Amino acid sequence: MRRVSRLIWIALLLTACTDTMNDLDEATRAELVPTGTLRVAMPVGPAMSATFAIEDASAGRLRGPTVTLGAALADTLGVPIRYVRYTSSGAVTAAGPRNEWDVTFVPRDPDRAAVIDFGPDYSVFDSTFMIRAGLDATTISELDMPGRSVGAVNSTTTGRAAARTLKQATLTSYESVDEMRELLDAGQIDAIALGRLTLTSLAPSLPGARILEEGFHSTATAVAVPKGHSAALALVTAFVEAAKRSGLARRALDDAGLGAAQVAPLDDDAEQ
To answer: Is residue 92 in some structural domain?
Structure first.
């Protein structure tokens, strides 16, 4: 049944992207699939989100909405796929100029746009703080006090926004969500800053920890390619808009258990 459903989605995408697929010349192939295999950069962590995938140990594979979107893009192109794993979206971005991957889905921000080229958004989200068990803070102002310690993942959109938000608490950067989760659980830091969906996924593993209702940053997860790959960017732009229009983006989020996630609006100016 799942195989039939997948074939239906691929057929819808092929129909929506017909003109672009017909124009897949050698220059576009050289940019998007230079090795003959579509290399999809994937942040992998302990909690799933519109950006992060998780390792499904029982199935021996990755799971997440971007895993589904990457597979659909590879199927649409008629090429094999390989997921290139990283510990954070910052690590994905840093690898962009090193020819390690062909396409990715990461949060959009101006710092990243200087290193990689963004296409359209596929999902919008906000970031907030998770407070450790036992700490009496219910707002950002109550958290942002001298002597308080907050963790964020290094070189990420949320980390940069947290640095702008916090005026008195000490913000420390870490290399992975796993590292921050362990420190918060042990009470060694007072809070962590992440996207709300990621925090919601982490919550069951952190008894007593609380997610603030108040957010401090809103952005979106968007498709991106290495800098200067304009032909590849045009193709993945058409793909993402087709995925939103056909319902594949919504289905990818729902199948990952992220029903609360919002699909980004269609971009009327994007190439079709």
So the answer is: yes
